[in-house]
Protein 1
Amino acid sequence: MKKKQFLLLIFFGLLLYPLYQAYGVLNLFSSVENPGEIRANIVTYQLSIWLSWVGMMVVSVYYKWRQRDNFFFKITYFFLVFTFGAFGYFTQHAHNVFGNSSRFSDSYTLGAFTTLQNLLVAVVLTIFLQIAVSLFQTKWHRR
């Protein structure tokens, strides 16, 4: 098995944990009437995204360092957009169903805000790591 195929296997294996957590949250929306339990599962889903992101960064940095290619970084950006989009949807849906108190009174602002808040932090950190690896691949720091 080639290195890229092995890294792809690890990378997509890391996607399974957030997918599993998202499936659990979706099941809870249809069966549970306790907002505390749903909120706890949404936070667990958020944690699964961040833990998968850490693993994806390890794979992305390793591949960029060895191959000088941004392939895994690009996939990570798509992962972040989709998973944090789902996180925002879950947050907003829980707010709409249970009517939790929030500063936002409409039916979409809380979800959009939480999505953008988490997405901005993750993208900035990812860009920082991507730039750092690019800069350290050159010899400017060894002079």
Note: The radius of gyration is 18 Å.
Protein 2
Amino acid sequence: MRRRLAIGDKDMLYHEKCLNKYRVIHTHPGGNPNLSEEDFSAAKNQGLQCMVTVGVAEGMATSFGIGVPVIEEETMVYGQALFKNLKELNAFPLEYYILQANRFIKK
């Protein structure tokens, strides 16, 4: 059975001077860890610190993706990195990207 879950609602706290403290992890059936346009849009609109995807095929995690805020040409966008395993994902410098985004927002 496939279920859908909406991220955020009217009660979710949004911060204007920094990213909110939410980090989202969700699965992508078929083994594809790439974030969709909907994922990027939700992350940006809600100021998420990150969005992690787990590519799942045949009931097993196959790969991982992470969407993080990136500052490019004086704008904040969400970029993506892909990983083959959790060890690689855990080595990703997430705090660096969060710090850079929060500095940008506070300008």
Note: Helices lie at 37-46, 86-90, 94-106.
